[in-house]
Amino acid sequence: MIRAIVTAVALLVGTPALAQPLIIAHRGASGERPEHTRAAYELAVEQGADVIEPDLVLTRDGVFVDRHENEIGGTTDVGDRPEFADRKTTKTIDGVPTTGWFTEDFTLAELKTLRAKERLPAFRPGSAAYDGREPILTFDDVVAIARAASTRTGRTIAVAPELKHPTYFAGIDLPMEDAFVAELERLGLTGADAPIIIQCFEVGPLERLAARIDAPLAQLVAGAGGPADRPDMTYAQMITPEGLQAMAAYAAWVAPEMTLVLPRDAEGRTTAPSALVSDAHAAGLKVVIWTLRAENAFLPAERRRGEGVAEHGDMAGYAAAFAEAGVDAIFSDFPALARESP
């Protein structure tokens, strides 16, 4: 109980780095259950996750649903549903042509008839065994899961929603920000002490949210490219000392892709930590890295075990290396392994 209280306080206010990073269940325990499902979230809580993550996209009728992308062909059974065959189409999302089925072409009632499936079945056959069992969740559903888990465990289980493609959605007359703030107000999640971290790869939505709510915000940063809403800005510029100081004007967290903290050499081995963590802390930002996965395909060379790309390597040791580098939180598909790190 003491760690739960310390974790919640450290999560929500500007305290120094934790001795042990927060564990954020990336789409739930998504290495073991289909992502963004009740089963994935509840297993993550059982495994000791401090935070559960829903990615948020919008339905045609303006409801926030929990999918990694608005294209849902890879994570639901929509492709097997003949009544929706005519909705398969190609759209350009943040400059990338994408073919499939899109949440904005469905009402919530229609989406609720679909069932989730494993996105990486070749890597995760155990998770794929749960295909077809779970419906799509709304943001409300995920908050309710976190609150019920907090009551059940006596720990504070926070949520870390990510707003996906807000500029794209605004361009199709489904603006996210007003609707999202209304949801947060209704759910009582706008305060500085609210058990929430709100993420986005774009800058403008976070800047505007910072002017309207006090809840903690996290600027996501990829290893290449830049924010979709700032074509003149790169992520590399954003993680310079000057860029981090500017980021701290609206965000409490910087959320870099993991190799921006522990780079890899030409052989795929990790090298010495970059200056990102120390620079971010100097700017008053906490650091959460994404995303630790147990399969060899996603690990640096020195952490791989066995021959197969789907075999599990030393993810717990990799998590420990990030803790040693000073990160404040870790996104992982395998919360139990992340929690095992020394």
TrEMBL record:
<feature type="signal peptide">
    <location>
        <begin position="1"/>
        <end position="19"/>
    </location>
</feature>
<dbReference type="InterPro" id="IPR030395">
    <property type="entry name" value="GP_PDE_dom"/>
</dbReference>
<dbReference type="GO" id="GO:0042597">
    <property type="term" value="C:periplasmic space"/>
</dbReference>
<dbReference type="InterPro" id="IPR017946">
    <property type="entry name" value="PLC-like_Pdiesterase_TIM-brl"/>
</dbReference>
<keyword id="KW-0378">Hydrolase</keyword>
<feature type="domain" description="GP-PDE">
    <location>
        <begin position="21"/>
        <end position="342"/>
    </location>
</feature>
<dbReference type="GO" id="GO:0006629">
    <property type="term" value="P:lipid metabolic process"/>
</dbReference>
<dbReference type="GO" id="GO:0006071">
    <property type="term" value="P:glycerol metabolic process"/>
</dbReference>
<protein>
    <recommendedName>
        <fullName>glycerophosphodiester phosphodiesterase</fullName>
        <ecNumber>3.1.4.46</ecNumber>
    </recommendedName>
</protein>
<dbReference type="GO" id="GO:0008889">
    <property type="term" value="F:glycerophosphodiester phosphodiesterase activity"/>
</dbReference>
<comment type="similarity">
    <text>Belongs to the glycerophosphoryl diester phosphodiesterase family.</text>
</comment>
<keyword id="KW-0319">Glycerol metabolism</keyword>
<dbReference type="Pfam" id="PF03009">
    <property type="entry name" value="GDPD"/>
</dbReference>
<keyword id="KW-0732">Signal</keyword>
